[in-house]
């Protein structure tokens, strides 16, 4: 009997001792709770949030630009990546389309949430603490601005989740409310500017600008105007100006200039061939690879996975400058046979003429603003050219739009005039005086098309202007991809099916 008692006790002991909690922290590894101890930890933490924005191939390093540019009527998938081409032509069949961008955004969001949740507990300089938290809130708001426009109903993840947390879909209204909250709180603690050591961090002006974009996207024009006042007529206005040379907004040597409200920063990788594409086992890339994928194809310097539609360069021909020249923004925004108005024999493409590379009958068009053809004859996977996300010209055009929508059309002219006269077009006051609200609204659409061509805001504008619902026939004429567009479905991407299958999320309509 005693022997059986001992055996039973041993079995019970072994059974209990083998029950392991696999969710408990590994004592040999640093945890989130144990990391956040010092001011240095806080600085490294917010730097990691910025790193997630600019170093992930699925975010602003490459793929998000394709979503921005090619999903609109400006561009299309033009290379050998059939999956990309179908994605941008609304011809995808998988509910995992956009999965890479979705995951990259939530990866950055996870980092931002750590800063927002853990930095408050650190004993450190209070002004710096508040600034770091504000920077993280701006980036979280930017993440959700992308999510709500392209996916519509993402989960609101505002804490550092455990593996057992399954937040449900939020409504677009709930997402926008959180964006507004994050940015309203952030702008209080963000500085107007930084010294050289911190150049590129989020500023108060950037928060005002993104907040205005969130309001405008919802049709909240009074609120948007109030957010823009600080930048246009308020204390922040003296910090910004339009550059005399429009092209200076897109060159490596004139980054972070007076027109820049927010830029994502890049620098060329310091080691030879040290980028992720050619050396997959290292992660040294401090540049962006998007230029290589947007640059013109062989016999040229890039892969040309995304191209622009011809109609948009034709739009620049509708009006001449005051000295009877073509709108100079055309050749700055796009590479094509007449980027130099004199034609293919004068249009330069990375050190050769268009005629030398492509002949005289090639009518293809390539996005130019993210390229480096002004200073080198090839592209690699480590471009140092910053992405100018929000420019002051954009701010002025939004301000004019807000004034028009709240019934102050006459006051709106001055801000459009500043943008037009910078490129030597006649002022709108002279060219088209006395427009009513409806006509001025159409003019704003034209002004934004030309001023911001190839910068990524076109799809956002199309969504908020109702182009996808009310102007689909025109879109089909401009861009054959829209023949595949299904109203009520393709306004949003599908939520990645793997996330739907393993959470409390529900799929978007039509998928």
UniProtKB/TrEMBL annotation:
<keyword id="KW-0472">Membrane</keyword>
<feature type="domain" description="SusD-like N-terminal">
    <location>
        <begin position="93"/>
        <end position="215"/>
    </location>
</feature>
<keyword id="KW-0998">Cell outer membrane</keyword>
<comment type="similarity">
    <text>Belongs to the SusD family.</text>
</comment>
<dbReference type="InterPro" id="IPR011990">
    <property type="entry name" value="TPR-like_helical_dom_sf"/>
</dbReference>
<keyword id="KW-0732">Signal</keyword>
<dbReference type="Pfam" id="PF14322">
    <property type="entry name" value="SusD-like_3"/>
</dbReference>
<feature type="domain" description="RagB/SusD">
    <location>
        <begin position="259"/>
        <end position="511"/>
    </location>
</feature>
<dbReference type="InterPro" id="IPR012944">
    <property type="entry name" value="SusD_RagB_dom"/>
</dbReference>
<dbReference type="Pfam" id="PF07980">
    <property type="entry name" value="SusD_RagB"/>
</dbReference>
<dbReference type="GO" id="GO:0009279">
    <property type="term" value="C:cell outer membrane"/>
</dbReference>
<dbReference type="InterPro" id="IPR033985">
    <property type="entry name" value="SusD-like_N"/>
</dbReference>
<protein>
    <submittedName>
        <fullName>RagB/SusD family nutrient uptake outer membrane protein</fullName>
    </submittedName>
</protein>
